[in-house]
Amino acid sequence: MEKANFHISAVRLRNYSCEERLGLDGSGVDLGFACGYALTPSLRFRKADGQILPGGTVGAELLERNLAAGHKSAATEQVAGASIRMLLYLSGMYYALYFLATLLLIVYKSQVFTYPHSYLVPDLTLLFLMGILEAIRLYFGTKGNLTEAEVPLAASLVLTVGGALLSVYFLLWQTLVLWADSALSAVLLALHGLEAVLQAVAIAAFEG
């Protein structure tokens, strides 16, 4: 069979973006790229460690499954990334309000109620510690989400769990808990829980 040349449009799977020209003959095709593509119904190839090697025949059904899986993975990453970005922004804005409101409530309770100094200092210390962890958590979360990097996103996930535990402390175990404390901490805890789920989904999508 006479060899023919044709152009393959770029298919972007995750961080790959390539355009290749392939020479097709009757027995198969020489794949001169390493982009992880499944391209046409009768290509002979096998991908190993970024190298394209001779292999078996790729059928139309396998092609469709591979392309569908690639599009699904990319869609999952986009949805998770956009959701995390929105939640990180919302969480940062809300935590600024939470920190100021909780600090004012502690000052108010120390003036109106009996608030021993030995209990006041730990509550204030944990509040400021929570603020530091929140700033670091938001930094790693934003960095990991923008760069699609698992390590900073995983670090943000760990800090999110720590922030959630501190939210539970201010919700249930601080020295004096008013209804305002409960409402503020419950909302923050819900945000942390939702972020943790989306970060875990994003990490799984980025690894896949």
TrEMBL record:
InterPro entries: Uncharacterised_TM-17. It is found in: Cell projection, Cilium; Membrane. It comes from Pontoporia blainvillei. It comes from the Eukaryota. It is a multi-pass membrane protein. The chain crosses the membrane at residues 87-108, 120-140, 152-172, 184-206. Keywords: Cell projection, Membrane, Transmembrane, Transmembrane helix. This is Transmembrane protein. Pfam families: Transmemb_17.
